[in-house]
Amino acid sequence: MAEHPELSAQERAGKAFPVSWDQFHRDCRALTWRLNEVGPFHAVIAITRGGLVPAAIVARELGVRIIDTVCIASYDHTKQGDLKVLKGISADTAKLGGGTGKGLLIVDDLVDTGKTGRLVREMIPDAHFATVYAKPMGRPLVDTFITEVSQDTWIFFPWDTALSFQPPIRDGAA
Ligand SMILES: O=P(O)(O)OC[C@H]1O[C@H](OP(=O)(O)OP(=O)(O)O)[C@H](O)[C@@H]1O
Ligand SMILES: O=c1[nH]c(=O)c2nc[nH]c2[nH]1
Ligand SMILES: [Mg+2]
């Protein structure tokens, strides 16, 4: 990944993995089937912004009504810069997790390099960390995930994309 620092993470990725709303919903439900065996959880913590969508679906399926956020900014579109914690976990949620995060569920859409996940894990080390997708570098940080894609794959989420014309594969479409 470091050989071409001038390229964005997406450009370096090379392979595309587009995910539709329908597929994402199914993958979130599959994730919840696994999490249901691990819980119960006092609260769900979404890592914004990508974690908001899976957190809503998972919380609905698990019957959890306390939802908090950790707001982190890192990728500026597709280039990862320094991580900035814009908002931490609320005092109420921290109390529910006994200070270490026990019984709390952190949800994000994916782990890539693992930098974001590592930062949140350091805040609440005993929390359970779930993502829908995982790339190999970030995978060791995650307790539960559904689909692994290779490190050189860029995942395109439905909230970042729109339907558009694609040239036929024979003419060079990906
Ligand atoms: O494992 P990492 O290399 O840290 O990358 C994973 C993080 O990157 C994306 O978030 P992003 O920072 O793009 O912000 P967003 O959720 O607001 O889109 C994604 O939603 C994860 O939170
Ligand atoms: O939309 C995204 N797709 C990815 O594969 C990715 N990796 C880090 N951040 C990401 N955002
Ligand atoms: Mg994110």
From TrEMBL:
InterPro entries per record: PRTase-like, PRTase_dom, Xanthine_Guanine_PRibTrfase
Residues binding Mg(2+): D109
Assembly, per entry: Homotetramer.
Start and end residues of each Phosphoribosyltransferase domain: 20-165
Cellular localization per UniProt: Cell membrane
Principal subcellular localization: membrane
Bilayer topology term: Peripheral membrane protein
Keyword terms of this UniProt record: Cell membrane, Glycosyltransferase, Magnesium, Membrane, Metal-binding, Purine salvage, Transferase
Family (UniProt): Belongs to the purine/pyrimidine phosphoribosyltransferase family. XGPT subfamily.
Taxonomic source organism: Bradyrhizobium lablabi
Binding site for guanine: D112, I155
Record-listed 5-phospho-alpha-D-ribose 1-diphosphate binding positions: R49, G50, D108, D109, L110, V111, D112, T113, G114, K115, T116
Enzyme class, broadest EC rank: transferase
Gene designation: gpt
Function: Purine salvage pathway enzyme that catalyzes the transfer of the ribosyl-5-phosphate group from 5-phospho-alpha-D-ribose 1-diphosphate (PRPP) to the N9 position of the 6-oxopurines guanine and xanthine to form the corresponding ribonucleotides GMP (guanosine 5'-monophosphate) and XMP (xanthosine 5'-monophosphate), with the release of PPi. To a lesser extent, also acts on hypoxanthine.
Residues engaged in binding GMP: D112, T113, G114, K115, T116, W154, I155
GO cellular component, one term: plasma membrane
This protein's pathway: Purine metabolism; XMP biosynthesis via salvage pathway; XMP from xanthine: step 1/1; Purine metabolism; GMP biosynthesis via salvage pathway; GMP from guanine: step 1/1
GO BP: GMP salvage; purine ribonucleoside salvage; XMP salvage
EC number: 2.4.2.22
Protein name (database record): Xanthine-guanine phosphoribosyltransferase
CDD domains membership: PRTases_typeI
Molecular function per GO: guanine phosphoribosyltransferase activity; hypoxanthine phosphoribosyltransferase activity; magnesium ion binding; xanthine phosphoribosyltransferase activity
Residues involved in xanthine binding: D112, I155
Needed cofactors: Mg(2+)
Catalysed reactions, as listed in the record: IMP + diphosphate = hypoxanthine + 5-phospho-alpha-D-ribose 1-diphosphate; GMP + diphosphate = guanine + 5-phospho-alpha-D-ribose 1-diphosphate; XMP + diphosphate = xanthine + 5-phospho-alpha-D-ribose 1-diphosphate
